Amino acid sequence: MKDTLIKIEEEVAACQACQLCKTRTNTVPGYGSSQADVMFIGEAPGKNEDLQGKPFIGAAGKVLDGLLASINLKREDVFIANVVKCRPPLNRDPLPEEVAACADFLQRQVTLIRPKIIILLGRHAMDRFIPGLKISLDHGKPKRKDGNVYFPIYHPAATIYNRALIEELQKDFKKIPKIIDMIEKEKDQLRG
Ligand code: SF4
């Protein structure tokens, strides 16, 4: 049967593949356009996301919305997901076995959406796709791997505790349209 985002959502809703299913209120499969050029991947749902079943609600979500608006995008234009689809208790970091148990859902979403660029929000998302880097050194630098273009940036929640990071995040965001332009030009050249 053909894979779809709705099918993944239904499977996530019923998933009991790791212990996070025991403490979640709602699953948070991801939200946005199946045609998105830009896909954002964060770490894990927090308290508000768990209550509402949607990613990036609350303070971090407001920061993200402001950043999206700065490059003329809305949530409906992009797709936003997390490395794990259920909230870790007390917002602890997801455990490696939880990340592994949830990996297939995220991979299927990436395969279906085929975004031009995958924005990795923070260290955990970066480690999942391009391990071995440091967010403080490697944010704002696109990396190619396995046919995808990844772009690690600070997590919007980090700016709530460290206001100095908002400028870094704003600068990195401004690069996104330019990188997409570059990717499109490269594709045009390959097509000849
Ligand atoms: Fe399933 Fe992922 Fe939720 Fe674990 S975090 S129960 S693997 S959907």
Sheet bearing the most strands, described?
6 strands, mixed
Q: Find the CATH superfamily.
A: Uracil-DNA glycosylase-like domain
CATH fold name, please? Uracil-DNA Glycosylase, subunit E
Any idea what the shape is? globular
Number of helices: 8
The order of strands across the largest sheet is 1-3-2-4-6-5
CATH class placement: Alpha Beta
Secondary-structure element string: HEEHHEHEHHEEHH
Task: Give the ligands present.
Answer: iron/sulfur cluster
> How much of the residues is beta strand, in percent?
5-15%
Helix residue percentage: 40-55%
- Counted beta strands: 6
Q: Identify low-pLDDT runs.
A: none
What structural class do you assign from the helix and strand content?
alpha/beta
Please report the distance between the alpha carbons of the first and last residues: 35 Å
Assign the CATH architecture: 3-Layer(aba) Sandwich
Mean pLDDT: 95
What is the topological layout?
Blueprint: H1 5-14, E1 31-32, E2 38-42, H2 47-52, H3 59-70, E3 79-82, H4 96-113, E4 117-121, H5 123-129, H6 135-138, E5 143-145, E6 148-153, H7 158-161, H8 164-191
Parallel strand pairs: 2-3, 2-4, 4-6
Antiparallel strand pairs: 1-3, 5-6
The protein binds iron/sulfur cluster (SF4).
Structural overview:
The structure is a single chain. 46% of the residues lie in helices and 13% in strands. The chain has 192 residues and is of the alpha/beta class. It has a single domain, classed as 3-Layer(aba) Sandwich (Uracil-DNA Glycosylase, subunit E), CATH 3.40.470. It binds iron/sulfur cluster.
